[in-house]
Specification:
single chain, alpha+beta, 23% helix, globular
Length: 329
């Protein structure tokens, strides 16, 4: 639908982060623009015989032999292939990083894998239950998800409420909030739930931290910083995984795409308390050939109607895409 009062609206327009509760979603990590139209996103996955014949190497991040995986078309299938390679259950995998065994939020596997990237799978480790007093409106968390139902902590803001609770760490999977199981809940919903917790009250988190090898234990990290220029893909192009539709092999993103995605991801954080580069990439892809904001808004509603983006946000995203096209960043 066009912009205006008749468009479906969010409860609020521009807000502070859910206590810096960004959501990166699902895709937790870097996203790349597809060269094909997004209209194919609703198509069923192609048969295995028609998928890209690509082989990737993988290890468990806490230590394991090297496995070889192939024949996957989305993140869920990727996790199943990794689990099969190491004889574990797919739900044991919390998230994956590319080219490092460390819990490095800049190297999260999202919608893009470089054709020569090495995949490290981080599996469930110690469970913990933590009580936190929400003494400020913002908790100081950034939330992302792995694309298959697990929300986890991507970043902890220095000096924030959560920063003072040393048992909470970057990479921890949030299993429940005040006894409410949130497995299967998307990052933006988890961010909203945390934001809506009453101030000056104590709440309980059940967390699962990634398994660590003893020799790899490291000091607590604050996690990824937004607006990083770190690139994940390193190979001869990338494999883009989609939540719906087939995976596609694409060229490395152009300068326009990288700048536009980064700016839109920053806007997602500012307005909605989430970070999600794959979502940002999809929005840029939707808007790159649209002639005006109304046309862009209608395309967003058709492609990403579940989000109900505020009008202000849509205008700013449209402007950001236009700035990137003109090289104004």
């Amino acid at each position: 639908m066009p912009l205006g009062p008749w468009r479906k609206k969010n409860k609020s327009t521009k807000e502070q982060l859910v206590d810096n509760e960004e959501v990166s979603g699902g895709h937790a990590g870097a996203g790349s623009l597809a060269k094909s139209a997004v209209n194919g996103a609703g198509l069923p996955p192609p048969p295995a015989s028609q998928r890209p014949k690509l082989v990737f190497h993988t290890q468990l991040a806490h230590g394991s032999p090297t496995g070889r995986i192939e024949g996957f078309g989305n993140v869920k299938e990727l996790y199943a292939k990794i689990a099969e390679a190491f004889n574990i259950s797919p739900p044991e995998i919390l998230f994956c990083t590319l080219n490092t065994h460390k819990i490095d939020m800049e190297k999260l596997l999202g919608g893009q894998i470089g054709l020569e990237d090495f995949i490290f799978a981080h599996v469930k480790g110690i469970k913990k239950e933590v009580e936190v007093r929400k003494s400020e409106d913002a908790l100081g968390l950034t939330i992302t998800d792995n694309g298959v139902g697990y929300a986890f902590i991507k970043r902890i803001k220095e000096g924030s409420v959560v920063d003072g609770v040393k048992v909470i760490c970057v990479g921890d999977h949030i299993e429940s909030i005040n006894g409410c199981n949130i497995v299967g809940t998307r990052h933006y919903e988890v961010a909203r739930m945390l934001k809506e917790l009453p101030k000056d009250k104590t709440f309980t988190l059940k967390l699962v931290e990634p398994m660590k090898a003893f020799e790899r234990l490291e000091p607590r990290s604050k996690g990824a910083k937004p607006a990083s220029e770190t690139k994940v893909g390193t190979g001869r192009g990338t494999l883009r995984l989609r939540s719906k539709g087939p995976a596609t092999v694409e060229e490395e993103p152009t300068e326009f795409e990288e700048k536009a995605v980064k700016k839109v991801d920053d806007l997602l954080e500012s307005y909605m308390g989430i970070r999600d580069t794959e979502l940002a990439a999809t929005m840029v892809e939707v808007g790159r050939d649209k002639k005006n904001p109304d046309e862009f808004a209608m395309a967003l509603d058709e492609t990403l109607g579940d989000f109900a983006f505020p009008d202000e946000f849509v205008f700013d995203v449209w402007g950001a895409i236009g700035d990137a096209k003109q090289g104004r960043f």
